[in-house]
Amino acid sequence: MKVKFVDLTRQNKIIEKEILNVWNKQITNCDFILGKEVELFEKEFASFCGTKYAVGVNSGTDALFLSLKAIGIKEGDSVIVPVNTFIATAFTVVYTGAKPVFVDCSEEDFNLDLSQVEDVLKKYKNKFNIKAIMPVHLYGQCCNMDEVVNLAKKYELLIVEDACQAHGAKFKNKPAGSFGECAAFSFYPSKNLGCFGDGGIVVTNNESIYNKICMLRNYGQKEKYIHLELGYNSRLDNLQAGILRVKLKYLEQWNQQRIELANYYIEKLSSNKNIVLPKVKNDKKHIWHLFVIRTKQRDELRKYLAENGVETGIHYPVPLHLTPSFKWLGYKHVDFPIAEKFSNEILSLPIFPGMTKDEIGYVIEVIQKFPWKN
């Protein structure tokens, strides 16, 4: 049997007719840029996140970048960023002229180790002019946002949530994206809510941030040809917005399928002492963008799975402080021991809506048959 890491054709078959209707409407109406579908999707997604406003942009990366710009991050500032995340999180800080200040991850849930965040703030808040914190809800599980909010209040920080992997995740029954000044989501095709290309969105309860990002995404103009500030071309495509409107109706159902698959993995693999399974606290709704295990025999297991037809991923193989593009920050090996340890142990198993019981059963069977070195 062959099991893909992600198979988007399963969900696309379910919504094919609705997607074709969206396409045909676009051809008929020729409503391509910042059109009606974008406006409607923004309202629907804001409602989904429990926020007042949403602004569609052209990628999750731009959603983070424009969020930072909108809250006033600039050259000379610094922003707290987890070292265990996709590199775009930290790149967006640099795009503003500011510097990322990395913090290690928690052994418990892969997210920011918030005790270390406070240690960094005590030592470097004034020295580095730390103005904001960017918690990443990694793999689909929220950070402890009570602690993030408390730290932000205590140290006068702004919060930009990186919710690019957390569409529908919750902390204490409150949706990801509704805690900070604003939050960024990505609609890259493989996300829990993905379009047919690049796309992103910013959600916020702050009207001034909303108005600012509306201008920044569209050449800095509030009305046509009246450019109030230096802006960008970062608009969510109207066709993609129409596709996202269709898929948003199915998101809760698809997330529930992911939860059931993750629970099955956990049930069947819990007896394997060579694997560390992901943990979820009762106050969090994990929507399993990725199902990430840890094992000291990661590379051998990954090869064995591939030889038996099972695709896997590694998210992420190099902690940010060790990537060549961030050498200039001056970090070195052992600065963030948990992230470095995890980068050698983590393995993402297949999980996606439409994955069958036979497929997940086969993945589990192959893992259990692997010649473990006890």
Could you explain the architecture of this structure?
- This protein is of the alpha/beta class.
- The protein has 2 domains: 9-103 and 110-248, 3-Layer(aba) Sandwich (Aspartate Aminotransferase, domain 2), CATH 3.40.640.10; 251-369, Aspartate Aminotransferase, domain 1 (Alpha-Beta Complex).
- Helices cover 39% and strands 14% of the residues.
- A 7-stranded mixed β-sheet has the order 1-9-8-5-4-2-3, sandwiched between helices. The chain has a 3-stranded antiparallel β-sheet with strand order 7-6-12, with no helix packed on it.
- Strand 6 and strand 7 form a beta hairpin.
Brief overview, please?
The protein is α/β, with parallel strands linked by helices. The protein contains 12 helices and 14 strands. The chain folds into 2 domains: 9-103 and 110-248, Aspartate Aminotransferase, domain 2, CATH 3.40.640.10; 251-369, Alpha-Beta Complex (Aspartate Aminotransferase, domain 1).
